Amino acid sequence: MKRKMRGAALIALGSTVALLAAGCVGAGSGPSESETNENADAQEFTWWHNSNTGEGKAYYDQVAADFEAETGVKVDVQAMQHEDMLTKLQAAFQSGDDAQIPDVYMSRGGGELAAEVEAGLVRDLTEDSADTISTISNFTDQYSVDDKVYALPYSMGLVGFWYNTDLFEAAGITDVSQSPTIEEFDGYLEKLEEAGTTPISVGAGDKWPAAHYWYYGVVRECPYDVVEAAIESTDYSDPCFLKAGEHVEDIIAQEPFNRGFLTTPAQTGPTSASGLLATEKVAMELAGHWEPGVAGGLTESGEVPDFLGWFAFPTFDGQGGDPADQMGGGDAWSVSAAAPDAAVDFANYLLSDEVQQGFAELDMGLPTNPAATDSLTNETLAQLIPVRDGGGVTQLYLDTRLGQSVGGAMNDEIALMFAGESGPQDVVDAIQSAAEAEQ
Amino acid sequence: MTAPAMGGRGRVTSAWRKRLEILFFVTPALALFGLFVVWPIITAVQLSVYRWKGFGPLVDFVGLRNYVTVLADDVFVNSIVHNLIIVGGSIAIQLPLGLAIALLLNRKMWGQGLLRTIIFVPYVLAEVIAGVVWFQLLQPEYGVIDGLLGAVGLRAPEQGWLGDPDLALWTVLVVLTWKYLGLAVILFLAGLQGVPDELYEAAQLDGASWWQVQRKITVPLLGPTMRTWAFLSMIGALQLFDMVWILTGGGPANSTTTMATYLINQGTRSQNFGIAGAASVILFVIALIMAVLYQQLILSRDTRSDVVTARRKKTKKVIR
């Protein structure tokens, strides 16, 4: 394994030297282009996904079997638990060994994908998947590097407030807006406090759930283009980033969170943020489209609680961002650089009307193919679709968008802000210096 | 003439034979040691001078810049402080407490075996399991400890024992004491078995009180055991990871980070493998320096063969 890595390094070094000698080192010419794909015609490939239980797993097995029957290409399906999959994927990439890197795998887009592209690990799908890309073009932006598409998003979910309709009613909040203003939202907090209900649970122990508040502050205050320009130029001095932090600080100042929220985990166990919502201990939680599924796993009966409702993150008077913009994240299929062409066909097949409809019927995510968006079974989930497709952009989770290095520094600083040991300017500074260190 | 020559040849072959034997038996261990200890250390040192995101070849050489970044990072410097607090705190609390319990359990009494087992059980538990149990016990509002405090009219801290930056590290220290006290007690008990009864009898004949016996005989003779235990405890505290990771993850507000949680956070979480590499090398150096100093200054008294063995031989002779 190590010898192969050295070999790869030597090839890369050799090809770089050769290019230098020829005086034609073009920007972005990764090793992928200099290597010819030896197994382009292979009739077998591997597929890693994270639907490793129940109906989802069975469905994906069926999808792979259908593809095999249709094309005669063998799909080696490996279903893994999500965190396991991420670890194994990272290890496979580190090995640099094509035999270990799966051919079709899940990508989260953003900075992570950009780093993989830079390392020449991912296949450019712009041309081979042109038809698919035109169907889901609303979502492919954040899966592109230098205008080339490297992953096909098959699910794009939203983050918003999941709330307990019973507790809201008990607190005398009868009129819950689908997209409240911050004044309305503050009114909810007040009424819930009066009723003796803890308004919000947040898993600040895991950092990212707390960071989602700040990301949404950014979506509300910064137009999408401003965020993209800031990332592009490594300059986060636009005052909108500061305003985002100020909004979050205002929310924190009202102390709406569950006791001990600084060490509360996001989703593990009944005392996690999701657990507190599922067991009716708090009135709401800011979480993604996965929340019904997670909450269902944390109730005594194992059923998805029927009291769950959803509304969007509040908007602010005079905000700089488009009110229709939302924040969320998606999952996409990437094809590795050394994968056979059949793997690309398979990725396209996974985005077809038929497969996406089945995906939606099982509520496995929020499909990106417009032909499948009506097929969702769960009504609460289905109500996210018009919000998502309401003309705004879905900004990717910023930690994913910025990549793990900058994203990690950002989340650390936001968690400090929740502990009252940091402020809006500190968060911007942390991002700025982490981004500069990456240059 | 032939006899010495033959003898010589025989000596040479037997010397070679011995060397071969040593080589044969040591090689597997050396190979494992090299593969799992030396090689990772070399890799860590190598990584620490590069900027590397986790894939692709190592090309971005940055010299010592990662070390500067790590040492200038308040979070890392505070991690070292937290580690040192835990080193000092563990020894300061567990040594007297462990000694007291060991002395108590060394007396003949009802339920001795049972008590020893109870004290030792936490040490046998996997650290992760103990961590999860304590995490649940310490939950604010819904945890057992808050419930008990509430039942007697006391109010637990608002954000919980682990959620308050001023309390979290001390709470972790309490849990660690609970977990590792058993090891101290069992080692001290074993040490106590090595103190010959004759010394006690002699002291008692001389009219020494129980306290005097403990102070003048038990504690000095338990010295080597205590020093070895303190060494183990120190190394363990420097490498502390599991318990902190489960209980607080280094939070709240970085109040419980250790060097090990810092390098996981930088490495696998933020993919700054170079910085994590530099942090791990620094951790290694700190542990090495402390270990060597401890060996030289404190443990050398026990390892210098003449003192201890001479004393032992003397007592043996007396016994005979």
UniProtKB/TrEMBL annotation, chain A:
UniProt cross-references to PROSITE patterns, sorted A to Z: PROKAR_LIPOPROTEIN
Record flagged with keyword Signal: yes
Residues annotated as signal peptide: 1-27
A UniProt-annotated Pfam family: SBP_bac_1
InterPro entries: Bact_solute-bd_prot1 (IPR050490), SBP (IPR006059)
Keywords: Signal
Official protein name in the record: Raffinose/stachyose/melibiose transport system substrate-binding protein
TrEMBL record, chain B:
Pfam families: BPD_transp_1 (PF00528)
Transmembrane intervals: 20-42, 80-105, 117-137, 167-190, 229-253, 273-294
Mode of membrane association: Multi-pass membrane protein
Entry's localization field: Cell membrane
Domain ABC transmembrane type-1 intervals: 80-294
Main subcellular location: membrane
Alphabetically ordered keywords of this record: Cell membrane, Membrane, Transmembrane, Transmembrane helix, Transport
InterPro entries registered for this protein in UniProt: ABC_transporter_permease, MetI-like, MetI-like_sf
Keyword check for Endoplasmic reticulum: no
UniProt-listed PANTHER family: ABC TRANSPORTER PERMEASE PROTEIN, INNER MEMBRANE ABC TRANSPORTER PERMEASE PROTEIN YCJO
Similarity comment: family membership: Belongs to the binding-protein-dependent transport system permease family.
The protein, known as: Raffinose/stachyose/melibiose transport system permease protein
Lineage: Bacteria, Bacillati, Actinomycetota, Actinomycetes, Micrococcales
